[in-house]
Amino acid sequence: MDTDTQKRAEAVFAKKELKRAEASSAWAEYEGKQTAIDKNTERLKALRLARDAQVVIAPPPTKKLKPEVRRPR
Question: pTM to 2 decimals?
Answer without folding.
Answer: 0.53
